[in-house]
Amino acid sequence: MTITADGGSPAAGTPRSKRGGGFDPTSLRRQSPRHGERVVMIVLITAALLSVLVTVGIVLSLLFPAISFFREVSLTEFLFGTRWTPRFSGQESYGVLPLITGTAWTTLIALLIAIPFGLGAAIYLSEYARPRVRKVLKPVLEVLAGIPSVVYGFFALTFVAPVILNDLLGLDIGTFSVLSAGLVLGIMIIPTVASLSEDAMSAVPDSLRQGSMALGANKMRTTLRVVFPAAVSGIAASIVLALSRAVGETMIVALAAGTQARMVGGPTEVGQTMTGFIAQTATGESTPGTLSYNTLFAVGLLLFVLTFVINMISIRLVRKFREAY
């Protein structure tokens, strides 16, 4: 064997890949173009851009008719007026507060129903239910989210108001009320709160539960003092998402709350929501381009802004209280 001057073998300075039988990571080269990756990347970019374009299109479709509306009606009158009669010839008034109060009442009642029942279902499914029971109950609970809202509306109109509120509870309520609409709306958004909260609580590491029980805490205290705070970001997001859906729901409130736009002072009164007015006007006989028709877009823009603010609050809450494990 020949030895070089530095005492090494002739192949000592030769790259391993050239000596054969080895692999040189520094000589990696793309052997063939990956057309599949390029196609997937183009599809993903297109999907992202499409969602942005759709959002921009929605805003523009609401914005230009709304601008035409606010050229004739002041923003102060629109936001703080207490009388909403845009289609009464000779007695037009464009104060949107009656619609806001109707929306607020139905949303508040819905949250009072959905939050306790939804969180209760989430705690049971996450902490107490056996795996077999969870596999059965969670899909059944989520079936409620798949029922068409028009079915919920007729349920409120034909059963909740006359049977439960009038006959069983003895309340003096007519066919339409924000109470019956809010109750059924709360039932509809229970799966939103329950499912997302259960996912957040199930994501909490078992080590936290085991550490709490090792210190002597029982199951309930561990759930309320350890698991619940650890999952609070996901729980808050589920509540805000349910709130957003309650504000934007149309068919239930259009059928059960009524069509009289007036200041709602109590849950047993008849009222109209923003979405109920939009549904009524969109299917009415208003002439496109008129002031009464443009009220549709002014109310829609206000609803869009409210929903956007709610979603921004949800994002802030999730980022603020997020726990990383």
UniProtKB/TrEMBL annotation:
<keyword id="KW-1133">Transmembrane helix</keyword>
<keyword id="KW-0472">Membrane</keyword>
<feature type="transmembrane region" description="Helical">
    <location>
        <begin position="137"/>
        <end position="161"/>
    </location>
</feature>
<feature type="transmembrane region" description="Helical">
    <location>
        <begin position="104"/>
        <end position="125"/>
    </location>
</feature>
<dbReference type="GO" id="GO:0006817">
    <property type="term" value="P:phosphate ion transport"/>
</dbReference>
<dbReference type="Pfam" id="PF00528">
    <property type="entry name" value="BPD_transp_1"/>
</dbReference>
<comment type="similarity">
    <text>Belongs to the binding-protein-dependent transport system permease family. CysTW subfamily.</text>
</comment>
<dbReference type="InterPro" id="IPR035906">
    <property type="entry name" value="MetI-like_sf"/>
</dbReference>
<comment type="function">
    <text>Part of the binding-protein-dependent transport system for phosphate; probably responsible for the translocation of the substrate across the membrane.</text>
</comment>
<feature type="region of interest" description="Disordered">
    <location>
        <begin position="1"/>
        <end position="32"/>
    </location>
</feature>
<keyword id="KW-0812">Transmembrane</keyword>
<feature type="transmembrane region" description="Helical">
    <location>
        <begin position="173"/>
        <end position="194"/>
    </location>
</feature>
<dbReference type="InterPro" id="IPR011864">
    <property type="entry name" value="Phosphate_PstC"/>
</dbReference>
<protein>
    <recommendedName>
        <fullName>Phosphate transport system permease protein</fullName>
    </recommendedName>
</protein>
<feature type="domain" description="ABC transmembrane type-1">
    <location>
        <begin position="100"/>
        <end position="314"/>
    </location>
</feature>
<dbReference type="GO" id="GO:0005886">
    <property type="term" value="C:plasma membrane"/>
</dbReference>
<dbReference type="InterPro" id="IPR000515">
    <property type="entry name" value="MetI-like"/>
</dbReference>
<feature type="transmembrane region" description="Helical">
    <location>
        <begin position="39"/>
        <end position="64"/>
    </location>
</feature>
<feature type="transmembrane region" description="Helical">
    <location>
        <begin position="223"/>
        <end position="243"/>
    </location>
</feature>
<keyword id="KW-1003">Cell membrane</keyword>
<dbReference type="GO" id="GO:0005315">
    <property type="term" value="F:phosphate transmembrane transporter activity"/>
</dbReference>
<keyword id="KW-0592">Phosphate transport</keyword>
<feature type="transmembrane region" description="Helical">
    <location>
        <begin position="296"/>
        <end position="318"/>
    </location>
</feature>
<keyword id="KW-0813">Transport</keyword>
